[in-house]
Every structure is written in C-alpha cells, then in structure tokens.
Amino acid sequence: MTRSASPSLPAARTTGRTAPGPDAPVAGIWRGVYRRLTGDAMIQILVIAVLLIGWETVTRLGLVHPFLLPRLSAVLERIFNNMLAGKVFTDLGLTLYRAATGFLIGTAIAIPLGVLMARNTAVRWFFDPLISIGFPMPKISFLPIFILWFGIFDTSKIVMIAFSCFFPVVSATYSGTLGVDKWVIWSARSFGATPNQVLREVVLPMALPQILTGIQIAVPVGLITTVVTEMLMGGPGIGGSMIAAGRFADSVGVFAGIVEIALLGAVVVKGVERLRAYLLRWHHEARH
User: Fold this and answer.
1) Where does the record place the region Disordered (predicted)?
2) How confident is the model at residue 37 (pLDDT cuts 50, 70, 90)?
3) What's the number of domains the chain is made of?
4) CATH number for the domain including 180?
5) 216 closest CA partner among 260, 164, 268, 176
6) How much is the pLDDT for 226?
7) How far apart are CA 122 and CA 109, in angstroms?
8) Nearest to residue 222, comparing CAs of 172, 277, 268?
C-alpha cells in the first residue's frame, strides 16, 4: 500500500508545481510587453520605420526635388529648433486646446440628445430629420456662417469643431441606446427600478461601447477640423503655421507641421483607445 504525501510537505512539492515567487508579477508584466512588441505594435513600428527610411533615402539620392519633398533630417532639425524656441509647444497647445474644447462641447450636447431621441418619440421626431440631413454634409462649409456669427477669433473655430464632432457622437449614442435589449429593461423594471435607475444602471452601460465608438470617430474628426480651420483662418496654431510657411515657399516648415500633427494625432488616438479599454474593462470585448 502506498503512503500518502505528508501534510507537512509544501503545496508546491505535493502538486509538482513551483510556487510563485515575489518576482512573478514583474515577469508577467515583461511577458505582456514582449507579446506587444512582437505583435501588432512591432509591425506598426516597422512599417513607419520603413516609410521614414525610404523618405530620407529618396531625398538624399536626389530622386525628388527638395522643394517638393525636403529631407526628413531637415524636417526633424526644424522641429528641434522650433522646440528650443518654444514655438512647437505654443502651436500644439493652441491646437489641442481648440480641439479638446470643441470636442467636449459637442460631446456634452450630443450624448444627452442621443439618449433623449432614443427614449422620447417627440424629440426623435424633431431632431432625426435635422441630423439625417446634417450628418453627410461637409461641415467645413458652415465656417463662413460661424465667422459671421462669432467673429474671426477662437470662438468661431471652437464652434466649428464642436459642430463637426456632434454628429458622429449623437448618431452613435442614438443607435446604442435604441439597441439596448428591451427584455433587460423590462426585467429591471420588474425588480422595482425607477426610470432614472434604469437609465443610469442599465441603458447607459449597455450603450457605452457604441457611444465610445462614436467618440473614437469624433476625436480625429475634431483634430482634422481644427487644423483645416486654422489653415483657413490663419493665426497661431499648427494649421496657421503650416499655411504661413506655405506662403513663404518654406516646404520644410510645411512638412514639419505635418509631422507634428501626425505625432499629436497618434498620441490622442492611442489615449482614447486606452480610455475605452479602461471604461469597458467589465465588457466582453476586454477579454479579446
């Protein structure tokens, strides 16, 4: 007859496994970093690196006229000099301020209106035709009207950005709220939940993934609108600096602005993706 393992033996010996040491959480973090570096993130980095190397190589070989496509090294040198002078931070700060302010105003109006449209027939009857007509329209065509109404300074730019961000968010909010399963709402009501509790604890959480999708669409739309508005109206900001450089045939300055807005856009979009992952950490999409 075989003897059973002594109760005094460690659990690691009786199960044949090694007990996790104090460095296990650190090892888990490094494994996550390794998986990211060898996955999609590494592919994206390699694609961007190949593009930048190709840019520098083509210009150094003289295959493209420097005025049409300046060297990447010259563009980076211009950005570095502008950073030392503080110009980059001023332009980026103003552009980001306008984009963020307009986005927040548009989102603050769009989300409540989208919920009301999904839950109130009269509100939906009034606003649905307006949104259906306004969504596909080029929003920048309203800029002369906003300049006429709000002047030539930041107010008209921010209103233009808010107007552009409004439509994708209100449409996503309306669709997400309307698509909430009615059985879940009826179940919550049967347990005595008030209308406010149903909205706060059932409808909004279930509609949140689609609302965040609308926000993810509105963020780059807001950045694009900001730069275009600055280019059309002039003044400080990335768009204004780019159009000023173009007027003086300064192609290096134009491409410096393109690189700066590309970096800003990448940081902002990745930040929104992180925010979505945090807010939906309870959702099934977080497990994929």
Assistant:
1) 1-20
2) low
3) 1
4) 1.10.3720.10
5) 268
6) 94
7) 18
8) 268
